[in-house]
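Recall the central idea of this unit: under ordinary conditions, the amino acid sequence of a chain determines the structure it adopts. In this exercise we apply that idea directly, starting from the sequence alone.
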Amino acid sequence: MTGTTQALHDLPAHALLRAYRERSLSPVEVMQDLLAHVQRWEPALGATYLLRPEAALAQARASEARWLRGEPAGLLDGVPATVKDNIATRGDPTPVGTAATPQVAAPLDAPPAARLREAGAILFAKTTMPDYGMLSSGLSSLHGNTFNPWDPDKTPGGSSAGAGAAAAAGYGPLHVGTDIGGSIRLPAGWCGIFGLKPSLGRVPIDPPYTGRCAGPMTRSVADAALMMQALSLPDARDSMGLPHQDIAWSGFDMDPAQVRGLRIGLLLDAGCGLPLQPRVRAVVEQAAAWLESAGAHIEIIQPWLTRDMLDGLDHFWRMRSHVEMQSLPEAQRRVVLPFIRAWADSAGSITATQLFVASQQSHLLRVATVRATAAFDYVLSPVAPITAFPAHLPSPTNDPLRPLEHIAFTVPYNMSEQPAASVPCGHDGQLPIGVQIAGRRFDDLGVLRLSRVLEQLRPPQPAWPQPLPPGRGTGDSEDGAQARARAVPATPA
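Accordingly, the structure predicted from this sequence is:
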């Protein structure tokens, strides 16, 4: 088969599939190029877990044979893909980012992994995450640390840290993250990629949990829409799963003229949390101006998230983690990141009454979010109030008693079960800035369509970052895991 002048690891999924059909590219060629590219990047990024080159090449050879017979296995046959550490893959441990978890092989693929395999995608690696997914950074007692390809001194965000870094660095086109408070959208925004948190239950996941979603993390809306064709297929294991709908995901490519008459809310004040950086505000306002110039009606929305709501979520999640930590033997508990231990241990003084009041705040936030956004077709806002923070910090505040100050724009839509996406729309220097688009519950396709409009209205984006020369990246001069571990703080702030 003949090759192409473009770097194969940078090709989007739909381009790969077209080349496979035309026999101008082989899945083996693509996987060989991708693995070489990952090898160049990975010592500096630390984005992968269970990277298996030989198994990936074996899958690629099987895919190549199917394409040569004209019998592709499914929608994504031969396309490289990753899933996050906490998405179970058959025969592999699912440590959820922490060295405290026993290494027990999963008996089955979790739904997102199962759907990708059924579609023929090549799952060549899993991606890193922080301990229990409880940080918006890449710090992990198991994985060490994960770094942002745009600036390795900065975090990629979390908890889908490895997925965000991998997508930005060109580790193939398709990546799956999870999101319970912003864990798809935050790394998407800070890594300059597209990320979709679907409506709760749209993408089946196991185990399910209130607000927890799995979704695509890609370089383009087109590839995310392609992934949704597979990821949204039903799975009975998700007790919160939505009834399957035959959604026309291929209809994502909305013309900017079609936004005429849409009523779009503009939220620039989350109500609490970290103050909004001027450059982030400017990028969001510019995105609103693009949509307004295309005929949308833009209206400022007043904040609805309160301090009590955000603190209530924090205290409830602290108690959940505290109970989980207390169930661990002392030797296992000691290896959890100190920041997370300090955060969870602080719940020991919470009374039953306080816990009940805290638990109610998620419902109050759900009601307030639906009420505040009901009059609008979509809501535009920052993804995060700040750009990517230093990679050695577990959170922007570096304070285990103020851990959620940066998720005030994202977490409301987890509680309300509404779809929301991060679209890269600007930079502060070399650091990407994402704009969030939220839609009404179940309008996942609408969010994709408006995201596609922003893709078309924004100016050309900077070229994707490239691997640093030898000796320049974190970990180039020594074992990558050891280098990344240097950034793990020994004590909480």
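The CA atoms of residues 322 and 348 lie 7 Å apart.
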